[in-house]
Structure formats: structure tokens, C-alpha cells
Amino acid sequence: MEVIVKEGARQDLASLEEGLRDRVLDEIEKLEKNATPDNSTFVEVGDMELFRLKLQEEDRNSKLTHRVFYQIKDNKVYIRGIFHRHKGYGTETREELEERI
Hints:
By secondary structure, the protein is α+β, with helices and mostly antiparallel strands. The chain has a single domain (2-100), classed as RelE-like (YaeB-like fold), CATH 3.30.2310. It contains 3 helices and 5 strands. It has a 5-stranded mixed β-sheet. A hairpin with a 2-residue loop joins strand 2 (40-45) and strand 3 (48-56). The longest helix has 13 residues, at 18-30.
């Protein structure tokens, strides 16, 4: 399945430090082969139907504690946003994602 990183998500990636960005990109690339891995959850954000990919290492102090929000549409995966877990569940995230779609 083709993975397309939309502009808002590109900006999110650009804001991450390089090593962390590379790790997030590695996980996003895996969606090409399996768009709904075990660490993804279907979520409704407002009127939007999205998936939330939970990126977290076993070490809770790891810097990789992010959520990737994406849509599956027309056999493509559209990456809509990448947020730190503290931001990945709130109203602010919903509003930002709604603006991006």
C-alpha cells in the first residue's frame, strides 16, 4: 500500500530531532506492508475516521512516545499528523487534525 505523508505531518516530522525522526519514519514505512498493525487503533476524531499508531519503546523514559494519525483511503495510507503522546489524545489534537483534512 502506498504511504503518503501530508504537509501537516511533514511539518510535524521536521520538528523532531533527527534520530527520533528517522525512527518515526521507519515505523511509517512499515505501514506499506501492514496498514493496521497490532499497535494501531481505529479512532473517530470529530467526523473523521482515522487510525492512531502508537509508537513507544518498552523504556517509558524513551523519547519515542508518539502517535501517528492516518487514514486509509483508496488503497493508500495518508499520514495526517504526528504528535507526542501528551498531545495525541486531547481536543487540541482533534482540532488540528480537522484543519488538516
